[in-house]
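Here is a complete protein record:
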Amino acid sequence: MPHWSAGVNRAAAVWADAIIVAYVGFIDYTSPAHPGLERHLAVQGSATGEEAINFFHEGFGVKRAVLPRVLSLAQVAHVIRHTPVEIEVFGFGGLCVMVEGRCVLSAYACGEAPNTSGACSPAHAVRWHDTPEGLESRLNGVLIDRYAKNERAAYPTVCKGRYQAAAETYYTFEEPTSLNTLECIPEFGRIGVRAIKIEGRQRSPAYVAQVTRVWREALDAWKAGCFTLRRAWLAALERHAEGSQTTLGAFSRPWK
């Protein structure tokens, strides 16, 4: 705890606008120690309903909550109607099949949890090998994927690897694809979403610059009342999508 409290003390000392927190004990420390520092509930707080969000608001003064990537637009709208807390949703980046930030798959393969290493596939555990069967990617010796000569290789993460199961080799957990909700901007605005979260962890400065530039232009166009999906925006984002594929994720559930 002293390491965490020292970290938030430094953030407050340099006039940070807010801190993103998940652990209740840490929020409990921050609330009285730095009442003027905004507290935003992290996605790892796993608060998917207004009851949980309001608990953090009433008990610890949380001003904003980042919703996990499992809610539909209708569910997000329901939460917004029933809480005074600002709601932030993911707009672009990877998808996660595990509980956000607490992946036991990567912890098993790498020997350390994502929350302690800061990444689900820390660079020191990544290895690439050219073999007669193709280019192999491994995490601490665990074979994640094997690529043909002209096949585009992706950074290895356990949940997006190809494995042999029942005599077949395929994406056993999920295919590499990125969340891209650019087309949802008007709907986000209509239901009262206050912020869009763009995943930047394990990403290059060029990725962050290009993706945020597209989203800034799109949001400015929406605010000016002239939003339409531009092909150039979509092309730029697809270049940074995992497997060159994008999805609306849980935001699109037509069967509901």
User: Anything to note?
Assistant: The radius of gyration is 20 Å. DSSP finds nine helices and twelve strands in the chain. Residues 205-223 form the longest helix (19 residues). The first strand starts at residue 18 and ends at 21.
